[in-house]
Structures are given as structure tokens and as C-alpha cells.
Amino acid sequence: MRECTVAVFTLVTVLLVTGLLMDIHFLGHFASTMIKDWTSDLNSINKMERETRHGTRGRQTRTNTKNRAIRQTGTKNRAVNQTDIRNRAIALTHIRNLEISRTDKRNRTISHTDRWDHGTKLTSLACPYNNSSPPLDDKTRKTYEIHDLLRVKTPAFLSNYKNPCWEQDNPSKLVCLPYFYLAGFPKCGTTFTFSTIVGHPEAVKGKVKEPHWIARKRFKERSDLQCYVDKFSPAARVIDSEVSIDPLTGQTFHPIITGDGSASTAWHNPNWRYLPGNYNCTEPRVLTPHYLYHLNPSTKVIILVRNPTERVISGYNYFIRGHITAESFHAKMVQDLRTFEDCCSKYSFRVCAYNDNIRLPIGLYHVFIRDWMNVFPADQILIVRLEDIRGDPFRAFTRIFNFLGLSHVSRSDLREILNSSRMNDKRKRFQATNETLRLLDDFYRPHNIQLARLLQQHDPNSYLSIQDAMYSH
Predict the structure, then answer these.
(1) Is the pLDDT of residue 172 over 90?
(2) For residues 164-191, b (16+ Cβ closer than 10 Å) or e, as one string?
(3) Which of 117, 147, 177 is the last residue of a domain?
(4) 101, 281 in Cβ contact below 8 A?
(5) Are residues 340 and 378 in the same domain?
(6) Strand, helix or coil for residue 12
(7) Whole domain around residue 103: which residue ranges?
(8) Residue 252 Cα distances to 58, 96, 328, 407, angstroms
(9) 257 and 384 co-located in one domain
(10) At 362, is the secondary structure helix, strand, or coil?
(11) Phi first, then psi: what are they for 364, rounded to 5°?
């Protein structure tokens, strides 16, 4: 028994010593390999940095323990892509660190462009392919490429004109873009407001109040900028004829401005999926504000809002033809709510807000306004409530005139302008029931609160409170 015990002890000792020697050998080999890999990586990085300094397009990649790409950058520190462990694109950014797209766990885009900067080339970047947004065929691409206003060469505006104008072909021919856009929303007093603005002695109207060219009509034509500026040719003649002379320097200045009052500009983007920059995207990232900023980064944007429940009722009264009743309107609203909810079950909320098949989402003001604020600086966007215009028109229009840089107008002069301002006919063919009002108020209430918070972030001095924006009946 004693001899057996000694043999077992000897065998165990031999095994332990052998294992220890093998571990030491493995660790030595592992350390040697790590040092070689680290040295190789260091040499590669140093080589890359040398190539970068010499203008070679080197890239740097860093991964975590799960081999997940954390960052890939080019020579200008431009992030190329970020992927998760399933190789799904998480984010794409351009040279100025602008976020272009981000996808959730279902590979759906959940964020759109951050503040957009003039001159970026979003049209050359497509979103990652996924089943929710199949790629466009070549025929569709070629059809809509002609409508990409980001490809339009912007003119050099004349410095002695307040309105963006330039001389075309002949020095005697002046062409102009709008100085401001009364961008929306429909049935929020845009006709009355636009009429009052152009009633100011320093503002003039183009051929029509609402050309609807930016959001709609250009897709029925070719998106030729000449077609658009022709709509402001009467205004251009007035702008050119009105001139002031500085008595000290003798320099001339043209102070008159013109504007586009299309109430579709703020929200209507029915063709976004087909336009360059949105290929394969599950959410729009290039929209009307990007085009307008490209044409003129100094553009002024005025957006009118209104109790969205009252807005949709007014719109139904105004736009829908035929015999309508309170009962048929209620049935239509129930149907539209179901359509919107069904859309949200398949797509993102933002995509469904841009769905123009129903008019109900137009009242989701915060969705559209946020997209404009992501492009234009805060001091170039003015949000005005129709209720405030009705409550104190002098205060409201003084604010609007100051925003546009127009001279002060006295109360008596403004009263004359208001008396001559045009208003759309009030067509009240039915009165919504209390049940319908509650239905719509419940739908819009949380979005009204988001709007109020957004506006307070946009303008901390805004007199619009969250309670004001509740709009409950």
C-alpha cells in the first residue's frame, strides 16, 4: 500500500511539472505572438500615418473584443461606417461629422440628418439596403435626378439688393428668388398673413401667392430654376425700380423684398423616396429645407400654426367637395386615424407623418418644424400662431415685420393694410360633434406639447407656453 501511494504521488508530480512547463511555453509563445501583432499593428499605423501625411488615402480601423468596428476614418478624419456584431450599419457621417443615418435593431432608419451644412454631398450617399426600402430601378432614378435642386449652381447675389437677385444674360434683366417663404401650414391664416406682408410698402408679391413649385409643380415639369424665377418676374421689376441713394457715399440700395406663400412648402414631400440622397432610406434625410438652404442660405422662413383640430376641420370644409355632414366627417376621421396607426405599425412615426395620402398628419407640426430647424439657423425661422394674429394683430405683425427687416408700421397704417388684406372664404358646411372634437384633441394633444417644448428650445423668450399649445376644447 505504501509503495502504491508513493507511485501515485510521483506520477501526479510529474504531470504537474509537465503541465507547468507547457503553460510556460504557451505563455511565451502567446506573448511573443502578441508582441509581434502589436509591433505589426504599430508599424501599420505608423505606415498609414506616413501615407496620410503624403496624401495617400489610408484608413484607420479600431475594433473591440467582439470584433465590432468602432470607427473607420479617412485622411480627413471622415467616418466611413460603423457596424454592429451583425455587420449592420449603425451610422454614416460625412467630413463635418454630420450624422446621415442610423438604424435600429430591425435595420430601420431611426434618425435623420443633423444640422445640415451648405455644400455637403448627401446626394452621393445612399442608405444601407434593407427590405423596407428596396433600391430604385435605373429608370426611376433617371426620371427624378433632374429634380435634384442640390445640383443647381447657385448664383452670386447682388450686394446692393436686399432681396436675393442677380443679373441674367443681359445686365438690364434682373431675376430674383424669394427673400422669404411663408411655408405653411394650410388653413392657418397663410392667405391673410401673406396679403398683409405684401401690403407693407417694402414688400411685393410675385405672379401668385402660392406657386407651389418647390414641393409640387416642378415634378410635373423639369426642375429648371429659370421656371421658378419667372414666377417672380413682376416682383423683380418692382425691386429693380425702387432704389434709395446714400447721401454721404452715393451708393444705391434696393430695399424691396418678395416672397413665396405656398402653404405646401413646410410639409409636403411626396417624392422624397425617389430623390438623390434618399435612395434606400427608410426615413427622408434630404427634404425641401435642404433645397431652399442650398439656393439661398440666408432665406427667411415663416411658419404659421393653429389648433390642429380646428385646422383639419377647416381644411375638410374648404378642400372636400360634395355634401358632407358631421357624421360623415367623424367617420372619415376614424378611418384616417386607423390608417395612420396602421402605417405606424409598419414604418417609423416620422415616415407616416410625411404620408400625404391622408391630411390628418399635417397637424403634427413638431415633426416638420424640427426638420426645418435642423437645417436653418434659429434666427431665420419664425413660428406664429393664428390665434395670436387674431388676438393681437398689431403685436403679431410687428413681430413678423421685424423678422423680415421691414420698417416699423404704425397702428393706423397697419389697420389700413389689414382692411385691404385678403382672406379665404369661410365655408362652414358642418359643425363637428363633441365626440369628434374629443377624438381629435386626444390624438393631437401629446404632439401639441412636443411642439410647445420645441418652440421654447428654439426661442426661450417665446410667450407660447405648453398650456397655450394644449388646444383642448
Answers:
(1) no
(2) bbbeeeeeeebbbbbbbbbbbbbbbbbb
(3) 147
(4) yes
(5) yes
(6) helix
(7) 63-147
(8) 53, 39, 60, 18
(9) yes
(10) helix
(11) -85, 65
Confidence of residue 101 (pLDDT cuts 50, 70, 90): very low
Instruction: Indicate the residue type of 10.
Output: T
Give Cβ neighbours of residue 372 (< 8 Å, ≥ 6 apart).
183, 266, 289, 301, 303, 381
Q: Which of 10-14, 21-25, 188-192, 277-281 has the highest mean pLDDT?
A: 188-192
Any domain includes 31: no
Q: Which positions ≥6 away from 186 have C-beta within 8 Å?
A: 263, 264, 311, 315, 362
Average pLDDT value over all residues in the chain: 77
Quote the pLDDT of residue 70: 40
d(CA 352, CA 341): 9
440-444, long-range: CB within 8 Å, 24+ apart, which pairs? Answer: 440/308, 440/309, 440/312, 440/333, 441/309, 441/471, 441/472, 441/473, 443/337, 443/360, 444/308, 444/309, 444/363, 444/364, 444/471
Q: Which helix (H) or strand (E) holds 167?
A: strand 165-168
Q: Is 7 exposed, middle or buried (0-12, 13-18, 19+ CB in 10 A)?
A: exposed
Q: What are 259's three cell numbers?
A: 416672397
- Whole-model pTM: value is 0.73
Asked if residue 176 and residue 136 are part of one domain, the reply reads no
- How many domains does one find in the chain? 2
Q: Which of 105-109, 241-245, 334-338 has the lowest mean pLDDT?
A: 105-109
